[in-house]
Amino acid sequence: MHTWDLWYPEAASQGLSFARAKIDPAEHVFVHALPASVRVEVRDEQGALIAAGDGLARTQESPMARLVLAGGSVTREDTWPAEGDLGSVVILPGGEAGVLRAWWNAPDHSEWRWSVEFYNHR
Q1: Per-residue DSSP letters for 23-73?
Q2: What pTM did the predictor assign?
Q3: Spatial CB neighbours of 50, under 8 Å, sequence gap ≥ 6
């Protein structure tokens, strides 16, 4: 399991936690409603740092951002998901994580509809 820790560094004196999600290892995740700037750390089950990104600024106006792990770094791309993105993990504010099952948006991005599936077990 990997823990994705997302911080909004521009709030409070030391920043505020935006989301913390524990998920199966993934090369990328989508995040809904990510702040304009974010710091990301991805750690393994023992707490060792796998990848990080700091000062990841919004790249465009969209409801979703794709965070990508590559060579010990995390990069950000704000985007509108496409059919090829279905099945990707989506992290919501607070840290709940699900799987993107459906996405539609108007061509002018004035509206969108999406479905996320959640599964839990003990």
Answers
A1: ES--SEEEEET--SEEEEEEE-TT--EEEEEEEEE--SS-SEEEEEEETTE
A2: 0.94
A3: 2, 42, 43, 44, 69, 72
